[in-house]
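Appendix B. Chain record.
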Amino acid sequence: MLESAKVFLDTNVLVYAVDAADPGKRKTARDQIEALAREHRGVISTQVLQEFYVCAVKKLGMDPLAARELVTEWQNFEVVVVETELINRAIDCSVLFRISFWDALIVASAERARCFQLLTEDLNHGQVLHGVCIENPFREGSPGKVMERASLYRVKGNES
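Structure tokens predicted for this chain:
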């Protein structure tokens, strides 16, 4: 049975969801997170959870227990666990695409989960890496269209 395409959320999307400094990005991030949670299509990784916690507490000054609550809540998404095999894949991805290791680890995690899209502002919008389409949800004209386009696609291997 085929399901709707899965979408990987990068750390910056989660951070913008709690950052009051940019209300527009905050709303976009929250809308994306809520839609993916409702549709059971969101994917994150242990790397994303770790990065979110550190950024929320250190850079945004969020209470550590409040940040922990969000980390716990977001564990309801499908979570890709970063293991040694995935690290090796990320190293290869980093060299092949000439991107940072950390961005490559996100791409490798999205690929492992068989995601159709990766929502991030850290890579080139529209680029396809290892079969994963990069989408910047904060790019002008993108909000609202991301989920609309993703819902048109179905991918193999996403069986429950």
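Further analysis of this model is presented in Appendix C.
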